Amino acid sequence: TLITQKLSKLNGSEGLKEKIAAAKKCSEEFSTKLKDNHAQLGIQGVTDENAKKAILEANAAGKDKGVEELEKLSGSLESLSKAAK
Fold it and tell me: Which residues form a coiled coil (predicted)?
């Protein structure tokens, strides 16, 4: 993914290696979750409920289509950003 490519370029910074590895892992998990759910998310008639399960944090219907992984990725990138300052 684009995030993984960009993070690979930063990998030379000694103090950031652990945070970069965590961000890469979260990025891959999010991408995998979306790919695994492509049958429900990649169709023309995707339901609002399934789309919300993929990207909307405040969705009460569930987080089984990628929101949980997206939240982890966001937190990981935030942590990396703070460490890189």
Answer: none
